[in-house]
Each structure stands twice: as C-alpha cells, then as structure tokens.
Amino acid sequence: MTVHVLALSVELHLPQCRSLKEKRAVVKSMTEGARKRYAVAVSETDHQDTWQRAQVGFACVSGSPAHATDVIDEVERFVWSFTESAVVEVQRNWLEVD
After folding, report:
1. Which among 6, 78, 68, 10 is positioned nearest to 44, based on CA atoms?
2. What are the extents of the domains in the chain?
3. 56 to 22, 64, 98: CA distances (angstroms)
4. Tens digits of pLDDT across the chain (98 residues)
5. Cα angle value 62/38/36 (rounded, 5°)
6. pLDDT at 58
7. Helix, strand, coil content of the chain in percent (nearest 5)
8. How far apart are CA 31 and CA 44, in angstroms?
C-alpha cells in the first residue's frame, strides 16, 4: 500500500498585529481550528519572532491522493477565511512512500 502525504505551506501577513502576543493568538486560532476540523498536522514553521509575518505548515497523510487533496483544499479555504491575515504565498508538496 502506498502512503500519500500532501504538505501545504502558507506564508501570511498579519497587518493588524502589533505584538507577538496578538500574532500568536491569530496563528493559534488558525492552527487549532485546522487540527480539530480536518485532523491534519500543523506547525508554525517560520517567522516566530516577527509580529506581522507567519509561515504555517499543514500536512495530511492518506491512502489516496484524492482524499489528501480534498482535505488540503478544505484547509486552504479555511486559512483564506481568516480576515485577520492575508495570504502571501501558498505552496504544496507531495511525498509518496511505497
């Protein structure tokens, strides 16, 4: 059986954040919401000490590429729904293990 892993990297601009505390509240809301709703792995992967920037990574592991794509599509729509942030860049990467 092949294991399919689809990773989504999202670069965010958080123009309303004036402190790391405000930024972390927005990022935490996004990451915890994605974990609970879509059962994906999530991590803030870059810009941890910058007030108005964040990079967040999401990963879905599935037995089928179609299911992984569907889940990551939902996660991406969820990220775009956050009015406190602006999506600057989105990147997807596949890993397949036999």
Report:
1. 10
2. 3-97
3. 16, 24, 27
4. 789 999 999 999 999 999 999 999 999 999 999 999 999 999 999 998 999 999 999 999 999 999 999 999 999 999 999 999 999 999 999 997 77
5. 135
6. 98
7. 35, 40, 25
8. 8
pLDDT at residue 69 in the model = 97
Read off the amino acid at residue 96: E
Sequence-distant contacts of 71-74: CB under 8 A, at least 24 apart: 71/6, 71/38, 71/39, 71/40, 72/6, 72/8, 72/40, 74/37, 74/38
Q: What architecture is the 3-97 domain classified under in CATH?
A: 2-Layer Sandwich (3.30)
